[in-house]
Amino acid sequence: MGILSATLGFILPQYRTLREWSVVYDKIISTRPFVAHTLSGRRNHVKYIVNAIGGMSMRDIRPHNIALLIRDLHEDHPQTARRVLIEARDMFNEAVNYGWIDRNPPNEVKHLPAPVLRQRMSLEQWLQVYDNAHLEHWPPWARHMLALALVSGQRRADLQKMVFDDVWDGHLHVEQQKTGARIALPLKLRLDAADLELGGVIEACRDYAAPGPTLLRKRSGGALVVGSLSSKFTDLRTAALGKIDGPRTAPSLHEIRSLSERLYRAQGIDTQTLLGHKHKAMTDVYNDDRGLSRGQWKVLQLP
After folding, report:
1. Catalytic residue list contains 103
2. Which uninterrupted H or E stretch holds 167?
3. Is 16 labeled as catalytic in the residue annotation?
4. What domains sit in the chain, N to C, each tagged with a CATH number?
5. CA–CA distance, 189 with 290 (Å, rounded to integer)
6. Is 117 left (phi over 0), alpha (psi -120 to 50) or beta?
7. 65, 96, 143, 251: least CB-packed within 10 angstroms?
8. Is 262 one of the catalytic residues?
9. Mind listing the pLDDT tens digit for each residue in 189-221?
10. Catalytic residue at 178?
11. How do residues 117-136 score in pLDDT, each as one tens digit?
């Protein structure tokens, strides 16, 4: 049967193996506007799939083959299992588009529940961390990072690469590294809850260190690496808030993005555009405060 499948594979793609398709799929995702880190992650997800069922012919793969892979991954790595299933759906969808198969087996597989481990950050916590960042022993870029993250709602990689030349025509222009989304944020964008305006936050970045192209930079004017932003935030958070106990881990720098979304949405701002999301469902994930407001009264506003 293996010889027959190999022979038919020269004529009919459906008889070729998933491993053979993965070579074609890699070329497809390589043409997409991913940054190196994202592309590497996508390829790692493909490896899980290929290692599990790479020897099977495309026509023989059924939903239960994918479901078993996801179940095994979910036992120890629930978040990875979720990402691998998303990758499998895209991988087989492209196989349908290219005529290798006529159905997408992963589409029939449901996501297994993955625990949400990261705790959201409240405005009160952000203010504590921000106030602490003004102490002399912290590098000055740290407090500017906190303000820029909250008022812009952007990811750490985009904060790290922002330069003054990104500002023109009254807007800060951000081309997101993760997705390639291009967003123009008005300098008059104001976050009322924190009394921050984007233009003012950018101007405050000009003189705190030696001149340099980036908004966030060392005292010498040199650019920072992405990892420095996360590690310094962790130090600032721990110093300001102490150890945070509970079923979820302490909020990371990325949680400021969720806080920004929640505050701006309450203010009536279009947060889907602000965050650069293609689908509103992803923006709604950021809006979920994961129990942070549990027990608070929801006030009905009259028109």
Report:
1. no
2. strand 167-168
3. no
4. 2-108 (1.10.150.130), 123-287 (1.10.443.10)
5. 27
6. alpha
7. 96
8. no
9. 999 999 999 999 999 999 999 999 999 999 999
10. yes
11. 678 999 999 999 999 999 99
